[in-house]
Design goal:
two-stranded antiparallel ribbon, about 180 residues, alpha+beta, elongated, Arc Repressor Mutant, subunit A
């Protein structure tokens, strides 16, 4: 049986380092690579370290003192990154409102105000500008739901499936009832 092509092994290691958001051990990288060879994995990681040094100016794959590897911004650029990283696409309060719309949709503006308070109007305005929610008018009442853009951005293929998963995870966290 033939193993994975080297390009695929490299891609898997890159994906693991990029998405982890934390340092990864050699063993974790071996698992991510799809090989059983620590030697081959470390050679590819070493090649990636050299490649990132010659290609990128502000990012690197670094080996830390404990032997783990991390894909990171070079320390000299940390102050610059902090300025941008502290401004998320959707502010926390609006994100909470968005989660209620996603879970309860279709949901009325009256219900949203009951749950989130009157500040919900500014959240909804922001979420509509981002095209994550839309509304329809039913008389004087507005009914909100998420948009296709919301689904694409958050990787949701089926709203009903998302709702059942949320209910299931909420049930798992609930302590068992006493009999």
């Amino acid at each position: 049986m033939r193993g994975l092509p080297e390009d695929e092994i490299t891609a898997r290691i890159e994906a693991a380092l990029y998405s982890a958001g934390r340092p990864l051990s050699a063993d974790e990288l071996v698992r991510a690579s799809g090989t059983n060879s620590k030697e081959k994995t470390l050679k590819i990681v070493s090649d990636l370290v050299k490649k990132t040094k010659s290609t990128f100016k502000a990012i690197e794959i670094a080996q830390l003192e404990d032997g783990t590897f991390v894909f990171q911004i070079k320390p000299a650029y940390t102050p610059l990154v902090r300025r941008f990283a502290q401004h998320p696409l959707v502010p926390a309060a609006a994100l909470k409102t968005l989660s209620y719309v996603a879970y309860e949709q279709p949901v009325t503006s009256k219900r949203l105000v009951q749950i989130r308070g009157s500040q919900v109007y500014s959240h909804i305005k922001e979420l509509e500008q981002m095209q994550f929610v839309e509304h329809e008018n039913l008389g004087r009442l507005k009914v909100y739901r998420t948009t296709k853009k919301f689904q694409e951005y958050f990787g949701i293929t089926d709203i009903n499936s998302m709702k059942s998963k949320l209910v299931a995870s909420k049930d798992e966290r609930r302590p068992p009832e006493k009999s």
